[in-house]
Amino acid sequence: MENTPNLVRNPYEVREGITILAVDDDALYRETVVNYGKKLGYNFIDANCGNDAFKIIQSQPIHGLLTDLRMANGTGIELMKRIRNSKKELPIVPKIIVNTGLLEGGEKYLKSLGAIQIFIKPVDIKLVVGSLIELARS
Fold it and tell me: What pTM was computed for the model?
């Protein structure tokens, strides 16, 4: 009987059960994050504002959230408050904040809303996506 070679996992194959939501009003930044995450084999989806992101979170399981703070139609802070205060049972979603400037409310306030890690732009996409995947898998 001949030996069957070990099959290398296709890096573009979606890892079952892990969905990560990237929320940012900067379309290019969102696209870069989503494409890099998908290249690593994870299901990355996106929204351009907090209001759209909350609709997504209510409609399907999300295992990681990357959000900017300053956006029209629902800021990152408003999104985190809505998740925390939702009447519907939502799973605890690990949150990572990427912000373009000074932290609104400060780091302590953001962590009280559920932020796990906070990055200031510009930030290495690989670092942010890697952190998201690590949180989502834990």
Answer: 0.81
